[in-house]
Amino acid sequence: MIKKIYLVFFVLIIFNSYSYSQMEISTGVYTGGGIISANSPGQTAFTSSVFVDAYLNPEDYLSARLSFIFATDFNSLIPESRNQYYPFIKGLSLKGVYTYYFTTNIFMEQGLGGLLLNDRIYIDRNNWDFGVIFSLLGGVDLRKEEYNGFKIGIGTEYGMTFMNYSIQYFSIHFQGQYVF
Questions:
Q1: In this structure, what are the phi and psi dihedrals at residue 143, rounded to the nearest 5 degrees?
Q2: I need a labelling partner for 89 at 20 to 30 A (CA). Which of 4, 67, 99, 127 fits?
Q3: What's the pLDDT score for residue 11?
Q4: Which alpha helices (DSSP H) does the chain contain, by range?
Q5: How many CB atoms lie within 10 A of CB 18?
Q6: CATH pick for 22-179 out of 2.40.160.20, 1.10.10.60, 2.60.120.460, 3.40.50.2300
């Protein structure tokens, strides 16, 4: 009897997943400026990220976003800089992103999730730490009622870790995203 109940639950789960088999995937990048620190004074930084979103149900406004984050000292972008070492942080994040549409093409994204950062602020440091990430973005959906297309926006992101050197970064950025 119990095996039949498990079989019924299994079949219901399988049929439920097939009813939403049209998973929406998008990918994007952001670039901007911000601040990085790790038990040190904040340094102005160039911030960038590459990410992939997955909406399990196209009707939902909640997606899972996996992103690679990189932030380095602004001086690393200057061609004539003679520094031997430029502080940077890099990491991965997995967050839930809720998208709220004000009109058919104006939207706001809010994100919250987990973060894994690598501290390379000083030349002799190389430690990884876990933390949280928060994000907020306002943007324009350029798809014009089509399924595929571009979304752009301006946003902010804050990430912080809890142990070791308390790695933190803050970013104000421009984001571009393509929905498949």
A1: -75, -20
A2: 99
A3: 67
A4: 2-19
A5: 8
A6: 2.40.160.20
